[in-house]
Write a structure and sequence with these properties.
Layout (H helix, E strand, L loop, with lengths): L1 E4 L4 E4 H18 L4 H10 L4 H25 L5 H28 L2 H33 L18 E4 L4 E4 L1 H17 L4 H11 L4 H26 L5 H21 L5 H24 L14
Antiparallel strand pairs: 1-2, 3-4
C-alpha cells in the first residue's frame, strides 16, 4: 500500500518506509548508533527528496536519542556539564547549518551538497570502522587486550578551563564547544546526530571515560536534533510529519528486536558488518552521482 507524503510530494510504499525505520532501528539496537547517517541516504534511495530526508531524519534521531538518554540517566552515566558545553556549540552549529542549508537550497545546490557530504563522510567513517574492527577481531583472537592511556596534549594549555567531575576531566571548554559546533552543522546539513564523529572525538580527543561517553553524546544529540528539526520546519518547511510518524513506528519495533539480538553476536563481528553496510550505502550514493540519469534534461535556452 502506498502513502502520499504531502511535504515530500511523493507517493511511497508504507511497507518500504516501515522497513527502513525498522532496519535502522535494528542497527541502533545492535550497534548502539543513532542510525541517522544511514537513515537519510536510505530515504534518498527510496525516492524522498534529500531536503525532506535530512529534516525528517533529524526528528527520528531526536526520539531515539531521548529514549537512550533516559536509560543512561538512570545508570548515572551522563555528564550533564560536559553535555551542556557540547550543546551550546551544537546549537550554534545547527543555526549556522540551517542558514547554509537555506542558502544552498535557493541556489538549487542542496541536493548535490547532501549527496557529496554523505559519500565523503560515509566513505571515511566506513573505512576507519572496517580497519579498526578487523584489528580488534585479530587482537581478540590473539588474546591481546588494548588499554587506553590518558595523554596531555595541546588542548590542556588552552584557556577557559572547566572541571567535569563525571568525566574526571579538567580541560578547556573550547575543544568540547568546537566538537559540538561541528556536530551541529552536520545535523543541519546532513540530518545526522553526529554520534559517529562525536563519540570518537569525546574518547580520543577529549579523553572522556567510555562509561559516560554514549549517554553524554545522546544528551547533546537529543536537543540539537530537536532544535534542527524546529528550525528546518520554520525556515525551510521540509519536515514531513507523516513520514516521521511511519519511520518512528518501524524504528521502535526494530530497536527492540536489535536489543534482543545484540547479546548473541560478537562485538567485533557486529562492527565489521556495520562498516560493510556503511560502505555499501556510500558506494551506491557515489555511483548515483556519477552515472547518467535515465531522463537527462537541461535548463539551457533552446537553440533557434
Amino acid at each position: 500500500m502506498n502513502i502520499y507524503l504531502p511535504i515530500a510530494e511523493v507517493s511511497v510504499s508504507v511497507t518500504l518506509l516501515l522497513g527502513v525505520g525498522g532496519g535502522v532501528g535494528l542497527l541502533s539496537g545492535l550497534f548502539g548508533v543513532g542510525g541517522g547517517f544511514l537513515m537519510t541516504p536510505l530515504l534518498i534511495l527510496c525516492g524522498i527528496p534529500p531536503a525532506v530526508a535530512v529534516a525528517t531524519g533529524a526528528n527520528q534521531i531526536c526520539a531515539a536519542s531521548f529514549s537512550g538518554m533516559l536509560a543512561h540517566w538512570r545508570r548515572r552515566t551522563v555528564d550533564f556539564k560536559m553535555g551542556l558545553v557540547l550543546l551550546v556549540g551544537g546549537l550554534v552549529g545547527s543555526a549556522i547549518g540551517v542558514q547554509l542549508f537555506a542558502l544552498l537550497r535557493t541556489l538549487g545546490q542542496v541536493d548535490l551538497l547532501i549527496s557529496l557530504c554523505y559519500v565523503v563522510f560515509l566513505g571515511i567513517v566506513g573505512a576507519l570502522m572496517l580497519v579498526e574492527s578487523v584489528q580488534a577481531l585479530m587482537r581478540s583472537r590473539r588474546g591481546v587486550v588494548r588499554r587506553n592511556r590518558k595523554r596531555h596534549g595541546w588542548m590542556h594549555g588552552l584557556p577557559f578551563k572547566m572541571r567535569f567531575r563525571a568525566s574526571n576531566l579538567y580541560i578547556s571548554a573550547i575543544p568540547p564547544f568546537l566538537v559540538g559546533l561541528l556536530v551541529g552543522v552536520l545535523a543541519a546539513i546532513m540530518g545526522v546526530g553526529g554520534g559517529f564523529i562525536m563519540v570518537p572525538a569525546m574518547i580520543y580527543l577529549l579523553g572522556m571515560a567510555t562509561t559516560v561517553v554514549v549517554g553524554t553524546s545522546l544528551f547533546q544529540i537529543m536537543f540539537v536534533t530537536a532544535a534542527t528539526t524546529l528550525m528546518h520546519a520554520i525556515a525551510n518547511q521540509t519536515v514531513d510529519a507523516l513520514l516521521a510518524l511511519v519511520l518512528l513506528v518501524g524504528g521502535v519495533v526494530g530497536t527492540q528486536i536489535g536489543v534482543r539480538l545484540a547479546p548473541r553476536l560478537k562485538a567485533e563481528q557486529l562492527r565489521i558488518l556495520l562498516a560493510l553496510l556503511v560502505l555499501v550505502v556510500c558506494t551506491k550514493l557515489g555511483v548515483d552521482l556519477i552515472i547518467t540519469p535515465d531522463e537527462p534534461f537541461s535548463l539551457a535556452e533552446p537553440l533557434h
